[in-house]
Amino acid sequence: MKVTKKDMENVAVLSRLDIPADKEAQYTQQLNDVLEYFDNLSAVNTDDIKPLAHVLPISNVFREDVVKESLDRDLALSNAPLKEDGYFKVPKVLED
Amino acid sequence: MKLFEQPAHVLHDMLVNKEITSLELTEAVLARIDEVEGDVKAYLTITRDEAIAQAKAVDEKIARGETISFLEGIPGAIKDNICTKGVKTTCASKILQNFVAPYDATVMTKLREQNPVIIGKANMDEFAMGGSTENSAFQKTGNPWNTDCVPGGSSGGSAAAVAAGTAVWALGSDTGGSIRQPASFCGVVGMKPTYGRVSRYGLVAYASSLDQIGPITKDVTDCAHILNIISGRDEMDSTSVNEEVPDFTKALVEDVKGLKVGIPKEYFVKGMDPDVEKTVREAVKKLEELGAEIVEISLPNTDYAISTYYLISPAEAATNLARYDGVSYGERAEDAADLVEMMTKTRTQYLGEEVKRRIMIGNYALSAGYYDAYYLKALKVRRLIKEDFDKAFEQVDVIVCPTAPTPAYKIGEKISNPLEMYLQDACTVPLNLAGLPGISVPCGYSSNNMPIGLQIIGKALDEETILRVAYTYEQSQSFHNDRAQLGGN
Amino acid sequence: MSYEAVIGLEIHSELKTNTKIFCGCATTFGAEHNTHVCPVCLGLPGVLPTLNKRVLEFAIKAGLALNCEINKFSKFDRKNYYYPDLPKNWQTSQYDLPICENGYVDITKSNGETKRIRITRIHMEEDAGKLVHSGNTIKDSDTSNVDYNRTGVPLIEIVSEPDMSSPEEARLYMEKVKSILQYIDVSNCKMEEGNLRADLNVSLRPAGSDVLGTRTEMKNINSFKAVEEALTYEIERQEEVLEDGGHIIQETRTWDPDRGITLSMRSKENAHDYRYMPEPDLVPIITTDEEIEAFRNSLPELPDARKARLEEQFGLSAYDAGIITSSRDMAEYFDGVIETGADAKLAANWIMGDLSKNLNAESLEIADSPVDAKRLGEMIGLISKGTISSKIAKKVFEEMWKCPDSPEKIVKDKGLVQITDTKAIEEIVDKVIEANQKAVEDYKSGNKKAIGALVGQVMKQSKGKANPQTVNQLLAQKLG
């Protein structure tokens, strides 16, 4: 297995997901299978090849610094799971 | 043909000539929904009352003698990952099951200027992740040609609606084949425009550097018309191309004489369904008969496209979907003691299996220690794949290949094996990686009578040439006049 | 063992644009919560960012003013971490290709020594929203409320090399950066509004060693006083740990200004894997040499150059010129005073003296001073002409502080004109000599200092209006 238990735990934290105990083996196996498949990329020589993040040669797209109307606050809060006095409300924060 | 079976350009002429009213047409489509939607399940939301009101408004306009635009009064479906102000946009995910966008996507703004009739929001794989629409959190859509089969995906609802006659036209989105492959499976026309041709503002992001909105229609003519409507630079999308949009309907000419058509040898390989190979080869032959010059070409890095795509798209998805955390919109898990637990429970509870899998793949590929070997490597190989196409297009005008290696398969047949599902995308993902336009047009049937699609790939911003080839091929055949046998039809 | 501190700063400065970095919402401070928000800054599904052109301009100007090189190819990246004030759960920032790199500023320490602090990089990014909580601290509140008004306000982050070795140097560096940002007018730099805040990194190493020790970080320090205090405390704490044979843990610590201590935040181990990736929704920024030169030419005179000019042109001392030029507003006020024809040294003295004292007492910025540069200049003119004495000037200044009248009018209305009429002064002098025979005797018997008491008496009786030079001359004359 390429993917260790520690990898899975780390990925779960980074993803803000719980991996239920009964699914752990399956998730690990599936992640392992795809990663092993992805290893075919190691056959490609990419020395001196620059990464391609933007497929079209577009650059320097800007917006003028002009104020646009903001959303009405009720509309901004319309999808909030919990709100209070015009705020979005969240549970206790333990970490900064 | 019944009204709901007609393409938009025919219906437009009928409206202009007052042979029908938009209300008659809309009611015919709604009646078709009553008849077949129980089997097809293409829609997540049907806005019946709004549709009737829109149709009546168009009829009044026609009665006043005003001219109408191409889509005016003609019913269509919108994939449920395109934001529609005031109507739910769920992305077929439980986490957005009650989400109502307070704004319209740019394509919706452009469409609404045309006064089309919007029938509703179409089913899809959750957050557009999948190739069968089986990953919808709400329902499995049936392929109108055989409702035991998948419609393809992720724009399966859009393609199925057009094929079933429950929409005349539809919008889909394509990140790795999500317009072209369901179009192929459902025997309709689907185009992924050049990356940047159509604004992505309001398209709920899956993989931002790959996503593109495009039309799904009953024929190439409708495709060109809708592309005219939705294309163009948008100041809300920095990646939209600032090029003049040609009139794509001018490309609808029956002439491929002298055009060089490349056939990439790497796209006809092991694992391909023999019916698909045979049908596509016949289509190539037909193009040759019509005067095109067939050139065998090589796209040597094709084998790496799946790996590249399935590293880049989950990496982008992992960040794009980090926002679904229960804080300011979407569902929130109950009974969490603190914020981190609330976020984690919310995501665990309300995101589907495939979405979670891709988020985990993405975070793995981006995480410290694996970034260079996976994500960065994929970005480099992406350049090589793009360069393959650049070289090929020095030789040829278009590239032709199958859209999908198989016709539509049975619901449940492949879904349990993620890797096998991913490998199905071999013919479609390279275009997204290279940002190129591609169209799928029906080119025949498998031995069990499921549609097969021919994919035509063009140079960046050269949708005109692929429309021309697609139109010429379409007009030489009659597949675009075939309709799925469904319901009383 | 003796240790030396190694200090580096990451200064975050909000830019004074009209709109946010990636959307058209206003950046106004103090607006009603969640009213400067839109789909884009709320991170709603489907939205895309568009870069505010002025943010780039301000960042380039800041880079040039801080002696940086401008990267001709720059791009944005996503910095991924979860926090409820960050709606997308990533911060759009710049990772490997920031807009500016390799700059420096020079600071002048209290001992007069100049030190160069190198700047690693400056990048553009978006600010986060604010959590409002019910309890004393966020951790003892059962719930928090989120306000997204600040989300997307443009920031530049200025990252220094670990070139500072004392809390004083860190403060001077931050003061210098603030001064420069104000000069080029890209930030309001109102620290109480959070416009300017710093993350402090500090480690210790044995004096003379080249090896870096383990560092700790204190985030979001938003006053110069706190910069010095937090660093002083943290250096002492680390020293004690090391002296006791312990190890410094690499961690983020909070500064508690009330208790004057830093506290460990105990964050999770992998919470800082930011998984940077190129921002696919924003296109690269390409800047040409011509554009960079145009920005360079648009910069105003900066503090160091202005200080040198004041020393050279007006003969101010390095210390005075340093204070006058430490803020652009003060330097401009000085120029305004000089424009009225006022003497430069007197101008500097008055600005650093009575004016600063009054401003501090009322917590006013110099730009909001009730006495503007023109009136102060006119008043200094009256001193130079001999219309009023320096002592009377203090009274005139206090009156000017209270009312908008010109100094001439005040002097006239209050009868504060200096008596230069020799005859009038002579009368007072004669009276004083007569009434103070003891002092006269002392003076005549050789105690020259005794004249001071007589001058004082004359001034007192003239209610301070007598020209002191005339008084001195007359007394000396009459007492032989």
Automatic annotation (TrEMBL), chain A:
InterPro entries: Asp/Glu-ADT_sf_sub_c, GatC. Its EC number is 6.3.5.-. GO terms for biological process: glutaminyl-tRNAGln biosynthesis via transamidation; regulation of translational fidelity; translation. It is an enzyme of class 6 (ligase). It catalyses: L-aspartyl-tRNA(Asn) + L-glutamine + ATP + H2O = L-asparaginyl-tRNA(Asn) + L-glutamate + ADP + phosphate + 2 H(+); L-glutamyl-tRNA(Gln) + L-glutamine + ATP + H2O = L-glutaminyl-tRNA(Gln) + L-glutamate + ADP + phosphate + H(+). GO terms for molecular function: asparaginyl-tRNA synthase (glutamine-hydrolyzing) activity; ATP binding; glutaminyl-tRNA synthase (glutamine-hydrolyzing) activity; transferase activity. Keywords: ATP-binding, Ligase, Nucleotide-binding, Protein biosynthesis, Transferase. Belongs to the GatC family. Heterotrimer of A, B and C subunits. Allows the formation of correctly charged Asn-tRNA(Asn) or Gln-tRNA(Gln) through the transamidation of misacylated Asp-tRNA(Asn) or Glu-tRNA(Gln) in organisms which lack either or both of asparaginyl-tRNA or glutaminyl-tRNA synthetases. The reaction takes place in the presence of glutamine and ATP through an activated phospho-Asp-tRNA(Asn) or phospho-Glu-tRNA(Gln). This is Aspartyl/glutamyl-tRNA(Asn/Gln) amidotransferase subunit C. It comes from Anaerovibrio lipolyticus.
